[in-house]
Amino acid sequence: MNVEIEKIGHHLAHPKGEDGIKVAEMMANSNYGMIEKSFRQLSEKDKSVLEIGFGNASHLEPLLSGHPEITYVGVEQSETMIRFARELWKNTPYYKFIRSEDFAVDQWQEAFDAVVSVNTLYFQENPKSFVENFYPVIQDNGSFILTFADKEFMAKVPFVNELFTLYSLGDVKIIFEDTIFAKTEYHTFNEILTSPDGEQFGRDFHVVCFYK
Ligand SMILES: C[S@@+](CC[C@H](N)C(=O)[O-])C[C@H]1O[C@@H](n2cnc3c(N)ncnc32)[C@H](O)[C@@H]1O
Question: I need a surface site. Which of 159, 170, 175, 210 has the fewest CB within 10 A?
Fold first, then answer.
């Protein structure tokens, strides 16, 4: 990928234009393990999924294409990602991609079985409100699945910049200790990744499941 390192962090926070598309492809590949573990938290009964910050939406092919019974709505703040996803999935009209400003929780008619959001936490001004704002559009017994890479790992990533706020699992537990959700479960994973120059390194990440 031929994008200057200082710009990568900006595109991760909000992909824009041609470089945004290239960075989004890189992040879809390197984050696939986190995305897959997040979707794996869905239960058999979950038939409608809302995803916040879906990136380039290429993960829907391996994760959802075998499940036409699942309705999927993706919300993104990036116009570039919305356009990319709509083109990628133009033959799958039951996937909907909506700009953040066009998704108003208080006007949305149906409730979802699950909301998923991966690698978005770092960019939220108020992480607790970010998650709890979706409470009204989650079915009773439904869930919000929030996935993030651990602070210790992220602090070593060269393109992490001032747009990112980093969290350990302990930080997140404190933020959500009095959440409106009825039950919270925390899962920690470690995966081995390979850098473009062939070096292997480990990444710890956390999947937090909030149940209504
Ligand atoms: C680091 S990328 C992660 C993309 C993908 N989920 C992944 O894990 O590879 C963050 C994405 O979330 C989007 N995003 C961040 N905060 C958002 C918000 N509050 N609402 C909608 N999209 C958001 C950004 O535009 C960006 O495409």
Answer: 170
